[in-house]
Specification:
- The chain is of the alpha/beta class and 453 residues long.
- The protein folds into 2 domains: 269 residues, 4-Layer Sandwich (Metallo-beta-lactamase, Chain A), CATH 3.60.15; 171 residues, Metallo-hydrolase/oxidoreductase (Rossmann fold, 3-Layer(aba) Sandwich), CATH 3.40.50.
- It is built from 13 helices and 20 strands.
- The strands form 3 sheets. Strands 6-5-4-3-2-1-20 form a 7-stranded mixed beta sheet. It has a 7-stranded parallel beta sheet with strand order 15-14-13-16-12-17-18.
- It is globular and about 70 Å long.
- The N and C termini lie close together (6 Å).
- The mean pLDDT is 94.
Length: 453
């Protein structure tokens, strides 16, 4: 019998925090932060004091009040006494905050396992955004690659890579000594350039003949009439660049390397230079160790690195952080962009809109190529209005070209029918009951509840 306790990821998208107990093994699958974390109690400058650890989070039940789990510093201002941990390990699927966001509170002696790519992404973002991306200190941080086997008491964890909107994403095939094996999908998709990763995961999961499968269902809604693949995003982006008579702006997440490659390839096809900022250059530089076919931001002739105007106004070395100085031989500024606008595509996002004041774009196009939630969600109305105001002011035409990092409903059904679990537990979804339309034995978890399988 395996017991699952759902401290997060049940009835919600994100926030995975699932405790798996089998015999005397005790393991967490992810330890993430919900997307709406604290929104009922905190707003802008009304935030919990980080120096006080878990004090406010316990007060509002924003993190599970569990003994023998958290480090002593996190418990210092709470009434929960520190005790040595009884958790054997935490297994991480990928680096997104809804899967790792609360690792910073965990006892340093609990072993943490993650893919080598995930570890590299976390390390890179921590360098760029200190204090914002922080998983805390861990005395036993272990990395793995697809195909490894990690033995833990009566369990064997076999990570297998899956395709997602960021590199280094994994699902797990968990073998048990009673052969009632478990599959944990993590986040996955089948419509990008690495879809063979997901196919390999599905194949390995099916071979294990699992008794139970924990399956993500972010897009467990009716499939839209048009489902874009990464290839179709690339084709659309290429066409927009070809038709544009001025600067083209591309808004996408820096961790979405597939999307970077789509824009980069489209730039080369159109004879345009792809302009990235120093942060994106640093990310590419760090990831080239793991993804060797990424371009070198220091030397690639199809890439320039944008340097913002700083205090001296002279674009000199002293104006920039140490990590930024490495790319100065490949520097471009607003002056060049303003003069030869049709020659460039520039990576942008909401926080970089100020650069439009300097580049003064004419006949420009703005490609929104990130999560649809920003342009459609009610909670983003104020920011969305600001974006539209900027685009209208500079007479920039808005385009949308995006595909999700998550599997469609039909692809989820495909995976389930291939893997054929006896029991299906939907996670990371707001529509868990939809799974009952494609499987006969669905057990729907509740947040804070347990399921025995």
């Amino acid at each position: 019998m395996t017991k699952y306790t759902f401290y997060g990821g049940a009835g919600e998208i994100g926030g995975n925090k699932i405790l798996l107990e089998d015999k005397d093994a005790k393991v967490y699958l992810d330890f993430g932060q919900s997307f709406d974390f604290g929104s009922d109690y905190f707003y802008e400058y009304l935030e919990p004091r980080s120096v006080n650890g878990l004090e406010c989070l316990f007060e509002f039940d924003l993190i599970p009040r569990v003994r023998k789990l958290y480090k002593s510093d996190s418990l210092r201002f709470t009434d929960l006494a520190y005790e040595r941990p009884d958790v054997d390990a935490i297994f991480i699927s990928h680096h997104h905050s809804d899967h790792v966001g609360h690792l910073e509170y965990i006892d340093e002696d609990i072993p943490v396992y993650m893919g080598h790519g995930t570890q590299k992404m976390i390390e890179t973002y921590n360098q760029l955004y200190r204090g914002l991306v922080d998983i805390g200190a861990h005395n036993h941080l272990n990395t793995f690659k697809s195909g490894d086997a990690i033995e833990l008491k009566n369990l064997v964890f076999r990570p297998v890579h899956v395709e997602h909107s960021t590199p280094g994403a994994y699902g797990y095939v968990i073998e048990k000594d009673d052969d009632r094996n478990i599959v944990f999908t993590g986040d996955f998709r089948r419509h990008g350039p690495k879809q063979e990763y997901t196919e390999e995961f599905i194949t390995e999961a099916a071979k294990a003949r699992p008794y139970c499968m924990l399956c993500e269902g972010t897009r467990m809604t009716p499939d839209p009439e048009k489902q874009y693949s990464e290839e179709q995003v690339y084709q659309k982006v290429k066409g927009i660049m070809q038709d544009s008579k001025g600067l083209v702006y591309g808004n996408f997440a820096m961790s979405n390397i597939d999307r970077f490659n789509s824009f980069y390839k489209a730039c080369k096809e159109n004879g345009r230079t792809f302009v990235i900022d120093t942060k994106m250059a640093y990310i590419l530089d760090q990831l080239r160790e793991r993804i060797p076919d990424l371009p070198d931001p220091c030397t690639d002739e199809s890439i320039d690195v944008y340097y913002r105007l700083c205090k001296s106004g002279e674009f000199c070395e002293k104006d920039y952080y140490v990590y930024e100085r490495k790319y100065m031989d490949n520097m471009i500024t607003y002056r060049e962009l303003k003069k030869d606008q049709k020659d460039y595509v520039i990576h942008s996002n909401f926080t970089k809109l100020m650069e439009l004041v300097y580049t003064q774009p004419e006949n420009a196009d703005y490609i929104y190529s990130s999560s649809e939630h920003f342009l459609e969600g009610e909670d983003n109305e104020a920011m969305r209005t600001v974006l539209y105001n900027w685009l209208e002011h500079f007479r920039i035409k808005l385009h949308k070209a995006h595909c999700s990092g998550h599997a469609s409903k039909s692809d989820i059904e495909y995976a389930i029918k291939k893997i054929k679990p006896e029991v299906l537990i939907p996670i990371h979804t707001e529509n868990p009951k939809e799974f009952r339309k494609i499987h006969d034995n669905v057990m729907v978890p509740e947040k804070g509840g347990t399921i025995d399988v």
